[in-house]
Amino acid sequence: MPRSSRPFLVCLTSSVLLMTPMPGMGESLMITQGNSGASLDFRIIIPPIMRVLENSHPRRLEALADGRVSAQQRLVVLSNMKGGFCVSLRRTAVELGTWELQTAPQSGIQLSPAADGYSLCGTRPGRYTVVLQHQFGTSDGSANALNWPVQTDISAI
Predict the structure, then answer these.
(1) Is 101:132 a contact under the CB 8 Å cutoff?
(2) In whole angstroms, how far apart are CA 58 and each of 118, 131, 147?
(3) pTM higher than the cut 0.85
(4) Do 133 and 76 meet the contact criterion of CB atoms below 8 Å apart?
């Protein structure tokens, strides 16, 4: 083989090798026509939460000068439920006589008397801090020894 044809032969061999398909090239394709791609559908599901963060009240009732007894209760409720929640307050000691419950008006909270006590409802998601003032009418002086007489239950609307 003449020396002058050697560079031509090297160039021809290199070109043939470059035109030979490689094993990995079949996996990478470029599509220029039509619709190609993927769609992603994400769903973020937030579970319903209804949590009583605080339910504080004194252990014993406080006697007032007029013979009635009184106590203050603080409720802090956190809820992300669209319909809201209701807190049912029921008296566990009937010997206390009449029961009056008061709270400062605040948006989203409804306090109403129920058959066996009171119902306190939050109408939208959020964090609620409610201070309740309980007053019980009693005819005897034994009310000073009574433990906390209100049962608090919470439920979703």
Answers:
(1) yes
(2) 19, 13, 9
(3) no
(4) no
Q: What are 125's two structure tokens?
A: 């998601």
pLDDT per residue rounded down to tens, the chain (157 residues): 566 667 777 777 777 666 666 665 555 556 666 665 678 888 988 888 889 999 999 988 888 878 788 899 999 999 998 888 999 999 887 777 888 999 988 878 899 999 889 999 988 889 999 999 999 887 555 545 578 889 999 888 7
Strand partners, 126: 79
Q: How many CB atoms lie within 10 A of CB 90?
A: 16
Cross-strand partners of 63:
69
Strand, coil or helix: 7: helix
Please give the biggest Cα pair distance in the chain.
Answer: 130
- Which domains does the chain show, CATH number per domain? 50-156 (2.60.40)
